[in-house]
Amino acid sequence: MVCRSIDELDGAVADCRACARLVAWREEAARVKRAAYRDETYWGRAVPGLGPADARLLVVGLAPAAHGGNRTGRMFTGDRSGDVLFAAMYRAGLASQPDSTRRGDGLRLLGTRITAPVHCAPPDNKPTPDERDRCRHWLIIELGLLAPSLRTIVVLGGWGWQALLPALAESGWTVPRPRPKFGHGVRCSLAPALPGRGELTIFGCYHVSQQNTFTGRLTPAMLEDVLVEAKSTAGLR
Ligand code: SF4
Asked: Quick one: which of 44, 71, 76, 192 is 20 to 30 A from 10 by CA?
């Protein structure tokens, strides 16, 4: 698959049906629906990344939620995790408004893009290793398209960290050996291994899941601190 632009990539991702289990799950969730959303038409497809093609900062999550991104068609949109993330991005100056409710609500991400290593909602929020590996080619294409501008990545959670490092190695950056370990506040720099790439700094941040935000493991201030540091490192004002 060759994608010459981010728009082309986003369209191709939305049409992907490569993982039989995930296609069945996302479509069943869209058909059965959660009671609170029974009058809505679910997206029910793979959820593309969100944000400009010349982003300097990339936020990497895990996968869409069955009644969040799989419902609205937009990453982190329609669930509590997204509420926490977009509010922090707004405070950090990375989003034009503090909430993201649906496609077409006017939200603009500022110098920043959001994506995930797996683009379809998985049962129990747990993609299999096969599904993660099958979806990696979309992430590699996305990293390649963003490469001319990309300077920092904020990775939400250890699962995303593990999924991202091989994709970075295949996308033209040198991943240190042994591989850097995930932790909240961890940061590491990757040298470019191909022309047209700059030095890339990746930041670890606890995931914005309710499990972390409800327990105080990740506070809004902790998330905002990481985003502000990544923004500054990316040269965004
Ligand atoms: S998870 Fe990725 S590879 Fe699998 S169907 Fe969805 S978009 Fe395609």
From this structure: 192
Helix (H) or strand (E) holding 200: strand 200-205
Q: Which of 8, 48, 53, 13 is nearest to 150 (CA)?
A: 53
CA of 17 to the centre of ligand 1 (A): 6
Q: What is the pLDDT along the chain (237 residues), one digit of tens a residue?
A: 889 999 999 999 999 999 999 999 999 999 999 999 999 999 999 999 999 999 999 999 999 999 999 999 999 999 999 999 999 999 999 999 999 999 999 999 999 999 999 999 999 999 999 999 999 999 999 999 999 999 999 999 999 999 999 999 999 999 999 999 999 999 999 999 999 999 999 999 999 999 999 999 999 999 999 999 999 999 999
pTM of the model: 0.97
Burial of residue 68, with CB atoms counted within 10 A of its CB: 0-12 exposed, 13-18 middle, 19 or more buried: buried
Q: How many residues does the chain have?
A: 237
Domain boundaries, the chain: 6-233
* Distance of CA 146 from the midpoint of ligand 1 (Å): 20
Is any atom of ligand 1 closer than 6 Å to the C-beta of 142? Answer: no
Judge if the beta carbon of residue 135 lies within 6 A of ligand 1: yes
Residues 6 or more apart whose Cβ sits within 8 Å of residue 4: none
Q: Is 18's C-beta closer than 6 angstroms to any atom of ligand 1?
A: yes
Q: Report CA(14)–ligand 1 centroid distance (Å).
A: 9
Q: Which atom of ligand 1 is nearest to the CA of 13?
A: 7
